Amino acid sequence: MSTQNAIPYMLLFFSGCLLLFAACGDSDLETDDVMPPGFEMVLIPAGEFIMGSRNRPDEGLAGTPVDDMADEYEKPQHVVYLDDYLIAKYEVTNTQYAQFLNAVQRVTNDEGHLLVDLDLAHLEMANEGEYRPKPNYADHPVRGVSWYGAFDYIEWSSEATGEPYRLPTEAEWEKAARGVDARLFPWGNDFHAEIDGTTQHTNTAEAGIDDTTSVGSFPTGASIYGIMDVSGNVDEWCQDWFSCDYSLEPKENPKGPDTGVDRILRGGSWRNVDMAARCATRSHTLPHRMFPNVGFRVAKTP
Fold first, then answer.
1. pTM of the predicted model, to two decimals?
2. Number of domains within the chain
3. Which residues contact 15 (CB under 8 A, 6 or more apart)?
């Protein structure tokens, strides 16, 4: 048994429907008695993991897979320690995001940044002025969301539930996806490995779906901790600003640079091929930008 398979993990469910919180008097993130649904959170235990990639046997850390798809932004491979944390098992869905929009009744933040592009998202406004998922998309991950749209959703959810939700850091995202053995994909080192009778473990371009799928549709693609869709479906915003050399950051609980231009995206999507769906692939873009293949999930410090 690998070290990774010996790591215990715990599923914790937080229901946001137990209590109703009134909005703070001067807050612009009104709850308006519309509560976010509960997030099924997974506890990732404290400890070290291997972050990054190597594409030659003479570099990186001995005993880790050599990845010929690795690029320079994933180097050098290095060991990072993280305290324990919680991360959502599933990406935030259209149903969850529609509840947020119905509570705050706006699609821009105070700085004028658009939170979500409804033309890119599988969301629509009904005749009565209510946001709702388009038919058959209720449990698909929300897409077309800017980093600001992810941030405001999480801030609203935190105010509504009393739980300190946040976006995951880049390091937290990578550990949740790959565990501690530096595997290339959440399920192992072979993209097309046969597991439970299937060789397609994620919604990437290879699947030929050409759209998002319901969260959790590829159970064989779960990470060792049981996190679903960390590879494929939608790229996911992280908290961090992008840095070309992330090995210069602290080796304990790194949170990225203090300032920057682009924010980090992780995971690949239905529009991307296997290279983008690797656990170590790093993408980045301006925080105000929105794409039909970008969403997010929540995290939390215990």
1. 0.88
2. 1
3. 38
